[in-house]
Write a structure and sequence with these properties.
The protein is built from 13 helices and seven strands. By secondary structure, the protein is α/β, with parallel strands linked by helices. The strands form two sheets. Strands 1-2-4-3-5 form a five-stranded mixed β-sheet, with helices on both faces. It has a two-stranded parallel ribbon with strand order 6-7. The longest helix is centred in the N-terminal third of the chain and has 16 residues, at 46-61. InterPro entries: AB_hydrolase_3, AB_hydrolase_fold, GDXG_lipolytic_enzyme.
């Protein structure tokens, strides 16, 4: 139920949230005991089993507004994160409920702009910030202090506080801000996962085919791909949970039966991204073999030019949605994490 207020919950919803989370240890222990016999778990370490079930159980058992109340907004996550890492509070306010949150020492020579996911309605996750900090710290070991890469996360308006296309607008504002403060366009690397990756593709469409705000078409959200059903028990979220997230966001995304390549790359006509090499230098795209959205992502990959190494793709064997973050949360470094780091290293060398 939408109240129009971010993270608003009733006392019954608060009670339900407490009871649900109290059951997590029992669910986690059971999952760990049966993991050697489960297709989705038998290849994982015990740490990954516990990490995955904790995320899957809590995310699929709680409603969106309950998760919002539990996590807070981007700035709340950021404040707790910098305290844990003993880093200075460094936020550049962009306006319109958006800002740039620095996850490293502020450096505008070379910058990774991180756009978080969460179906436009959930904040940046602290373990995602951990992952990108670890990745950038590892990369910076190969460069002198003056050549090191800065890491900054975009905080954009979350549903219900921001309707589409306010999120896309704020990426443009963030890029303009970085460039106006001395970062060359060719030294900006934009990274995003899930909805954040979708926003990056929307940005690419807008750069290739600029449109005015009034002309931005509607959004179409779908869970009809075969992989949604096939991987429902294997992914980090079940098919029906994805459906609930999409259903929550749809009214604020002006959803309708008409779809658009500006906001749903899957619907892009042939040749839509053919000139992508004129606006960006390289693209890396990945998906997990066990992801519900695998088929949709694979279809989008085929729409991006792949000549001369412009596009690098990777299908993570037995991988799930945002598997690199779950690896980080479990204290591991997986194959996908290494490939992302190596690709960034090649790009900034």
């Amino acid at each position: 139920m939408h109240t129009g207020i971010y993270g608003s919950i009733t006392w019954l919803e608060r009670l339900h949230m407490a009871v649900t989370l109290l059951q997590l240890p029992v669910v986690a222990i059971y999952r760990l005991l049966v993991s050697p016999f489960a297709k989705r778990d038998k290849h994982k370490t015990w740490r990954r089993v516990l990490t995955d079930i904790s995320f899957r159980y809590s995310s699929s058992s709680l409603r969106v507004n309950q998760i919002q109340a539990l996590l807070g907004k981007d700035e709340d996550v950021y404040d707790k994160w910098i305290k844990r890492h003993k880093l200075p509070h460094n936020i550049d306010v962009l306006g319109s409920n958006s800002s740039l949150m620095w996850l490293s020492k502020k450096s505008t020579e070379k910058v990774i702009l991180y756009v978080h996911g969460g179906c436009y309605c959930l904040p940046m996750q602290d373990f995602a910030a951990d992952y990108w900090k670890n990745t950038v710290d590892s990369i910076n070991q190969n460069f002198s202090t003056s050549d090191q890469v800065g890491l900054v996360a975009l905080s954009y308006p979350l549903i219900p506080d921001g309707d589409f296309p306010s999120q896309l607008k704020q990426i443009m504002v963030a890029l303009q801000y970085l460039i106006s403060n001395g970062t060359k366009a060719e030294n900006i690397h934009i990274a995003g996962e899930s909805a954040g990756g979708g926003l990056v593709l929307q940005l690419l469409s807008h750069l290739l085919h600029p449109v005015q705000d009034a002309d931005l078409p509607s959004v179409s959200l779908s869970t009809t791909a075969a992989s949604h059903k096939a991987n429902s028990d294997l992914d980090v979220l079940p098919d029906w949970s994805w459906g609930e997230l999409f259903e929550y966001s749809a009214p604020f995304l002006k959803a309708s039966n008409s779809s658009s390549p500006y906001v749903e790359a899957l619907t892009a006509p042939e040749g839509w991204f053919s000139d992508a090499e004129t606006v960006v230098e390289r693209i890396f795209m990945s998906v997990g073999e066990y992801e519900c959205m695998r088929d949709d992502v694979l279809a989008v990959m085929k729409k991006i030019p792949s000549s001369d190494g412009f596009l690098t793709t990777f299908v993570e064997p037995k991988g799930v949605h945002n598997g690199q973050y779950l690896d980080c949360l479990a204290g591991q470094v997986g194959e996908l994490s290494e490939k992302i780091k190596d690709w960034i290293m090649e790009s900034i060398a």
